[in-house]
Amino acid sequence: MNNYRTIRKIGEGTFSEVMKVQSLRDGKHYACKTMKQPIESVDQAHNLREVQAMKRLGPHPNILQLHELIYDKDTGTLSLICELMEMNIYEFIKGRQCPLAESKVKHYMFQLCRSLDHIHGIFHRDVKPENILIKNDVLKLADFGSCRSIFSRPPHTEYISTRWYRAPECLLTDGHYSQKMDVWSAGCVFFEILSLSPLFPGRNELDQVNKIHDVLGTPDITLLQKFKQSRAMRFDFPPRKGCGISHLIPQCSAAALSLLHLMLTYDPEERISARAALQHPCFRDLRYRHLQTETQA
């Protein structure tokens, strides 16, 4: 870290802390993410899922860019030097009194769907407002510490995704889920940016399922049986008709509501993909603008 000057701490998680630093070589500011657990070797550092994913996925306009990897073999400390963004989505909407213009929300969601479409070889598994960064209206998906390859065999048993953004298949099966879990999480984020409130703020796993059923209603029993090795049969789900998403955000346009419903479809096989979401009428104007920009470039 001799080539960087630490300015201040900008974040901390369970496994790492993030500092704002300045490069002594080019004078630019970066985000330095330092792992709390020591790493045994430089090979282990390069083989970390997060490092592998960021190297493989970048550069992309909607994926946080890894600038440099710094490993201190004396202490086993690993630091990821990444581009510096302004804030995360949680910080952006926290404390806001007035909802954002829907056009701005769509602009952010189009970019989030682009990032999810780009990472189609892996699933992120922790899409939430804190892991979505913005700067000058550009959105980037970050924190690939929980990601897995789509080719890894289920069950994926370790802890995944923050509870409020966890898809039904993650709550109701013993690790049988796919990339569609990220689309569900993105749908929860979509609602939260529109309404400034979390959609399913469950206190525990069972309450999380109940919060989902309060809004979407209970799924058909045949769907519950579809989940492989389903834990759902251990729960008692009395038939319930949900209040519906439209009831919670009456100001939402028909196009945005349609996409929300498709992203928050209970059955992952029926849930829209990120690629199909990009083609949804909700993003018609953004697709045209994006196409114009690419043509000019």
Give the termini separation: 36 Å
β content, as a range?
15-25%
**Radius of gyration, whole Å:** 20 Å
Structural category is: alpha+beta
Corresponding CATH architecture of the largest domain: Orthogonal Bundle
> What count of helical segments does DSSP give?
12
Please report the total strand number as a whole number.
10
Biggest sheet features: 5 strands, antiparallel
Envelope shape: globular
- Assembly state (oligomeric): single chain
Low-pLDDT ranges: none
* CATH topology (level 3) name of the largest domain: Transferase(Phosphotransferase), domain 1
Helical content, roughly? 25-40%
> What strand order characterises the main sheet?
1-2-3-5-4
Name the CATH class of the largest domain. Mainly Alpha
Q: Could you tell me the mean pLDDT?
A: 90
CATH superfamily of the largest domain: Transferase(Phosphotransferase) domain 1
How many domains? The number is 2
From the structure above, extract its key features:
single chain; 297 residues; alpha+beta; Phosphorylase Kinase, domain 1; Transferase(Phosphotransferase), domain 1; 2 domains; 5-stranded antiparallel beta sheet; 3-stranded antiparallel beta sheet; 12 helices; 36% helix; globular
